[in-house]
Amino acid sequence: MVQLYNLHPFGSQRVVPCKQEPSHFCCGQDVLFVASTAASCKVEVFAVHEQGRCEALGSFATLGPVLRMAHSSTGDYLVTIEEKSKATFLRAYMNWRCMSAGSSRVCVRMVGHKMEESYCETLKEQMSVVEMPLSDPPLCISCCPVNGDLLVGCKNKLVMFCLKYRVINENLTVLDFERSLILHINNLIPAEVAFCARHIAVTTELDVLMLKLELVQQRADRTEQCAQSVSAPEKAVDGGVKDESTSTDPLQLELDEFIICQKPVELLGEESKLCEIPITLESTELPTEDTKHFQVRYLLFRRFAPDQSPFGFCEETKLHSVQLLPVYQTGISTTAYEETENKRKLLSLFCFFSLPYVGYLYSIGKLVELISTYQYSEKSEQAVLTPQFLHVITSQSLQCFTVRCSAAAARGEDPYIDTTVKACPPVTLDVCTLRMQLFIGPRAICHFKNHIILLTKADTEDITERRKPTRRMLSRKTESIKSRTNSESEPGWNLYIINTVSTIQLYREMVDYSRTYENVKTESCIHLLSEAHLLVRAAMMDPHFFKSDEKEDLLKAFRESCAFLGDCYSRFDTKDYHLALPYYRMSGLSMTEVLKRLVSEGDEMQTYAKGFIFYLTHSLNEDSNEELSKESGNKVLQIFYLADPVQLPHILCSPSMRNICPLRAVKYLQKVEKMMPSAVLTLTKAFLALKMGDLTMYEQEMDSCKETTLACGFIGQPRLLHQRKEGIVMPTEFAVHLKEMQPGLLVAATVALHENRKIELEEADTFFKMLCNSSENTIPQLLVDFWEALLVVSSQEEILQELLLRVTSQYVWRISRKQLPETKPLKTTEDLINSCHHFGLIVPWVTSIMSVGCSSDKDYHGDISRLQSLLCSQSINIASALPILEPLTEADNVGLTIRVLSSTRLGKYEEAIDQLLRRCPDAAVFYAQHELKGDSQALWWKKLLPELCKRTRLTGNDCPVLISSLKETLSIVAMELELRDFLSVLPEDGTAGFFLPHLLHCSQGKLLT
């Protein structure tokens, strides 16, 4: 559906002072080229200034009448198809600007022809005409706006000429062409071609084919590079492609008196290969190391059927105005386009073509998709596409339609644009006609910058109608009018330069126009404001935006249009009400400013739409630095109480609501609690009680729920405990109070927040350090309590290992520095062992070692036992923990237990036995009884027995501990070994009387078994 609005995109118009009737025209960077009719073979050049003012620069002769012409901004050359003696010629006019400077020198040369030395010094002052011979007559041409390459359409082929820069000497570089590629396309006679960034669109009367030339890697076999065949599959498309039985000679069709019309078909992307139009690439450039090799990728094929009526076929059903429109990426750098336009990065590409009554606009990107269809009220003659508008001429008018290029390009640049932060009107938004400007006999149109060039030519009957006399003079003046119509004094044609109004001016008109629909047609109001927004967005995507005089005005208009759209989605009851949030964010308005726009002062009965509530809810639930005034905050409380009371507890926790009246907030909460009680509401009331200093009310609220319920309540609203300011987690007054009065609840709540991904581990560290006023490198006991509590519930292996290393490091730090925790730990070692499997039971031999330790360690028993318990479990990665354990030396029993535990966890039992025998032989047997099992049991007689015998022999009877350990060891060994094996491990120089009881025990034990 096409929306119709009566806006004014066209401003002033001026007549181009052409001396003779134009046949063709096109626009350059700042000039207009006008080719005269067949009577005169020349091209006039006009400079176009601001507001469409024209100035004749001069003219130059052509070989014959111009049939087609095009200008390339890259290279600044004009290319024409000319006719002479019933033959057509392709010519490119280089350095044509010197003609306007008064120079009459012209150099005519063939393409690729080597420049003669005699021309070298004068090439700067002369126009150069490059003739490009072709084996078949040229039918249509197109210049690539990105790199200046030229594409020529001939029967059954497309020829590509690459623009080259030939260096004559250090002071002179001239432009030339090189015929580089031929695309052979069977059974295709191109009517029009479009060429942009290796994308090719070609149309016949009823077919559209779009291709892309893709670079391929160089292959060794150069014969394969010269010709590449791209053939479509043989399978026919249902109703869209004819097979060989229908592909007969036209003469045969005439003889049979049949006209075969194929059904319409549309093939997009990979499916377009099924069009059965084979393409063969022929490389014609001289092969070098830098030669580029291409392959063809099909993008789009569409076939239309002629219009039918009871009287036959309409011969006027033909495609026209095929165009490729590039949209460049802007905004990357403010200096990106000051050096050269060649550095522009292509963002999106659009393809347009039209039938007499319908136009089609496709987006060409990763996907090829139809984004807009244009229905014309009458038959179109020609159309021209710009990033902002589609201008169409009919037999009586110039029409201006909106386009969706900026919306599609914005999504191509940012696929995630439709979020809570950013938004853009949809590509599927209905197109609209801004204006239908009446003209007599529009025939041709082109566009550049903010100008439309329009050729009108009135037929005889048009002029007659225009000059038709009044009724009372009709009988006397009719004959004279007819004779004057046919005279030379009434040429009947004009070439206009129509100046389009500035983007800002048209934007203002659209905004003013939208206000007429505010209270009548909601969708029309949003539609017009969306059009205004897209108009400004398209202007900001222009490559010259950063150098534009309207830059600041456009940025202001962009923010303003976002604010207007935010107002619409906030006020109106629409299905897309959520868009109020991103549009207000893009507008840069603060919450206070939005409230002033939407909330009427003193209106207690005002209703609020879902979009406004959605915006307020999200804005207040985020960590904003904006603080509402007391009046604004109280108004927000009233709005939510009336519109969405469930959100009240969450809204009250917002940093923006710091200045509200707590007593009024409590009254609102008490009313809500009667309908919908919750733990979050209870905690919020307690929070407000603290704010008012009412400790009695605070205790009543906190005592009304169990501690576990309250901990879960903090999950529903974490900002009761902490709020973010500039990305840093800050504790609230509530958290400070809990730290002093209920530290266990505070730790439990923080653990619950972490497990529910409401706070990260590093954020929790910062939170507890700020809460306890600790320095950056100091770890408060409350943070250690949190780590220990998190070890109990966490199941993520990475986090567990991180926590284990952290608590280990803190235990070691306090033990090594004789540092007591500043507050009493929430849990004892026994509590941790009973509740957390990461803390293991302390083994007996550790207890044995510690029993003979010095009394000074008793003050740090909690940290020591925690550390030993951690190492007694199998959870901690001991290899990672070794550097942390390094500060604990072997000078005392604590260090010995840590060393032996570490060696045991690493499987170094012999090293552990040596350490014990050297430092605490009393515990050696206890250690062996607990650790030397399974595969390590042989160490009893291979390691421990020999070592005890050796040490006993050296000390004699002076060490009863070694003797008792040796006896215990012999008892274990005697029980485990055969008699022969037992005898083999006994020392040869031992006393027989000492070992005799064990030998007897060993022999008796084996006899019993």
TrEMBL record:
Q: Which InterPro entries does this UniProt record tie to the protein?
A: HPS3, HPS3_C, HPS3_N
Q: Which GO terms describe its cellular component?
A: BLOC-2 complex; cytoplasm
| Residue spans of biased composition, Basic and acidic residues class | 476-486
According to the lineage, what is the superkingdom? Eukaryota
- The BLOC-2 complex member HPS3 N-terminal domain extends over 3-485
Which parts of the sequence are annotated with region: Disordered? 466-486
Q: Where is the BLOC-2 complex member HPS3 C-terminal domain?
A: 505-1005
The record, for PANTHER family, names: BLOC-2 COMPLEX MEMBER HPS3, HERMANSKY-PUDLAK SYNDROME 3 PROTEIN
Q: List the protein's name.
A: HPS3 biosis of lysosomal organelles complex 2 subunit 1
Q: Which organism is it from?
A: Cyanistes caeruleus (Eurasian blue tit)
Which gene name belongs to this protein? HPS3
